[in-house]
Amino acid sequence: MTLLNLENPCYSCRFFADSPFYVRIVRYIPIGVLFDLLCADPERPWNLTVHFRGYPADILSPCEGEDSVKWNYNNSLKEAAFIITGNSKNVMNMSQADQLAMWESVRKGDLNSYMNISTKLKLGPFEEDFLVRTSSLGSRQGSDEPESPGSVKPCRVPVRLYVRRVQEDLEYLEDAIPVSDWESVSYINRPFEIRKEEGRRITTLEHALETLLPEFFGSKPTARAAGPEPAAATPDSAPDDSDTTPGTPRDREPASASPQEMDVAKRA
Amino acid sequence: MGSSSACDGTLSLDEFNASAKALVTKWRGIDVDALPDWEWRPCRKMGVPSETEGFVALEGVYRIRAGSQQIEESSDDPVPDDDVVGHDTSVQSSRDNVHLYDFHIVYSFSYKVPVLYFQGLQAGGQLLTLDEIKKDLPPHSLQLLNESKWTFITREEHPHLSRPWFTLHPCGTSDWMKLLLHKLGDKDRSLQYLPAWLSVAGQAVGLKIPLKLYCSS
Fold this sequence. Notes:
Region (Disordered) (chain A): 219-268
Radius of gyration of chain B: 17 Å
Subunit structure (chain A): Conjugated with ATG12.
GO cellular component, one term (chain A): autophagosome
Order of helices and strands of chain A: EEHHHHHEEEEEEHHEH
Family (chain A): Belongs to the ATG5 family.
CATH topology of the domain at 63-124 in chain A: Serum Albumin, Chain A, Domain 1
Organism (chain A): Aegilops tauschii subsp. strangulata (Goatgrass)
Largest sheet of chain B: 7 strands, antiparallel
Number of helices of chain B: 5
CATH class of chain B: Alpha Beta
Oligomer: heterodimer
CATH superfamily of the domain at 63-124 in chain A: Autophagy protein Apg5, helix rich domain
CATH architecture of the domain at 63-124 in chain A: Orthogonal Bundle
CATH class of the domain at 63-124 in chain A: Mainly Alpha
């Protein structure tokens, strides 16, 4: 028998939305993302029905406690660091105190504390030419190999998308049938590589989505000659709703500012 | 781009696909007794199977829970295998002691390496917890897991199945793959990537990979 602690994100429960179907709340996904995904017509407060019996052990193995959520978070952070810098050293070398403090700040939703620690990780911003310069590998003492120059790679931005498929064309998102099954949500975990292209001064979220989800953008040309476009979280022609973990107007200049913000939103 | 990416221990999606398909073919050809076949599973995008993306699955691997009765092999089996039992072998222990494992090899775009996803089931269909899975692992694997930071088990959302599975964290994979592959030429490196990778990743989860996989055909 598990007691649900709503402050603790690790316990799963089933809930009633507007539909008569049960939808499993999946752990490890920030509650804000779940709310955006599963409530087409935002209801406040979000009514949840909590079940203490009949745990679906054939579908979901029981949560092992807060530690497993913390490790999942740390691994996401390592992955984000790896994508951005090419290795996870900055995260793996965090002091114990910093690791604990960071987790506490995430748990409590304390952005200031979080920023204090995350800035030390130096996860952005990228330079103007969109290239990441990794420092050369430390040379061993007395080695007669010349120190290899640092490598230069195009920068990548970590992106996680939860895409909910809606079966028909809708005029208003609120008219969508609420999600009845987690199977109808696709999870895409794929970094977006920023490349300097002619005619494109900045990279927008829309461009990133077009690249990562080409099947949803159909006939739109991927290369645009025009200047900056407004960042759009929802494509206007596709019948689907995609929910990215950031999805804010700050993404207008993702190359310079948002890797950190995307990380914050992705990890928060 | 990506032609000699295996020099740094990584591989591109195309190389992964090619290596996966080669693995499936070769595995089928060597007729492994104790394990089922790897299968290629295309991903579904918008309900349609993708031609360019997929993963490799090995499902229905039986494991007798540690501490249960000794298995009794049929007299035809040449080598008794305590840990992994094929479905043909007759077994004395009760159904409750049998766990069933599924293994998937999925490409990671973040790390540009393969990642092993796995889950275990009890006979009644309930999913196993990490502690229960650890009990199924041979001692050297458990030690490897506890000591090595390269083969650490975590929970991640399966990229194609909308559920959390267990996974071997891939952050060190490219480093040790670089070592494993450095003697191979470019052409061999791509196709041999998965078998080489499996020799390490498989060990960590107690999956016995037959040596015949590494012999040239």
